[in-house]
Amino acid sequence: MKITHSIYTILLAGVAFGFASCGASGDDPGYEYAPQMYNSVAYEPLTQIVNEDEGSWLSSREDGKGEFFNSNVNNPYRMNMREPVANTVPRTKDGSLPYRLKAFELEEAAKIQNPIELNDQVLAEGKALYLQYCVACHGTGGEGDGKAGEVIGGVANLKGGAYINLPEGHIFHVIMKGKGRMGAHGSQIPQDRIWKIVHYVKQEIQKQ
Ligand code: HEC
């Protein structure tokens, strides 16, 4: 009886110790199971372990450095990534420049010209996109009478007096960043497609 008790006690203590040793806190990652799964042997672009002794207890490297050392000494700042070539300009997926104007910078936006050349195919695409993204609120004819528009209320009538002369850059900006009760669509529609919608709104809805 006594022996069984002692065995249970020792087992329990062992399990408790096992759980306690797994704990990670602060800068201590705790014990890792199969650490090579976490610390890649290949250069990882977004990690950089500059301590040459890191993981030396496990190391099988021929250069004598720690197994986890992961830093490219030939790159600037010993980064694993290369720096972009000087004067590199970032582009979005569709090849245009990132749009940096803030939601309130409507006046600046109004000066931007539509970079997409107008033709029948562009108009057809603009129409399809308008039907996809705008009709629910603005209605087929752009008069603000879409089904969702009826619920939301206050949807702009794109044919109405104040809106008919809106510059193309302004319309682009409103779609991109939203305005008042209209939400931003910039994260859903790529820039080149927004410009096609703008062509459609100007040419077919506003007949400008
Ligand atoms: C969820 C409903 C909704 C959707 C979807 C929507 N709009 Fe709007 N839109 C509105 C509302 C509401 C306003 C009025 C905003 C305000 O002034 O408060 C508005 C205003 C506008 C204006 C006038 C901006 C100004 O300067 O006052 C334009 C232009 C416009 N929308 C174009 C579009 C186009 C093009 C699409 C499709 C990409 C679209 N909207 C999608 C609800 C919507």
UniProtKB/TrEMBL annotation:
The keyword Kinase is annotated on this UniProt entry: no
InterPro entries tied to this protein: Cyt_c-like_dom (IPR009056), Cyt_c-like_dom_sf (IPR036909)
Gene3D superfamilies (alphabetical): Cytochrome c-like domain
Entry annotated with the keyword Iron: yes
Protein name: C-type cytochrome
UniProt keyword annotations, A-Z: Heme, Iron, Metal-binding, Signal
Domain Cytochrome c as annotated: residue spans: 121-205
SUPFAM superfamilies the record matches: Cytochrome c (SSF46626)
Pfam name, any one: Cytochrome_CBB3
Organism: Shivajiella indica
Leader sequence segment: 1-26
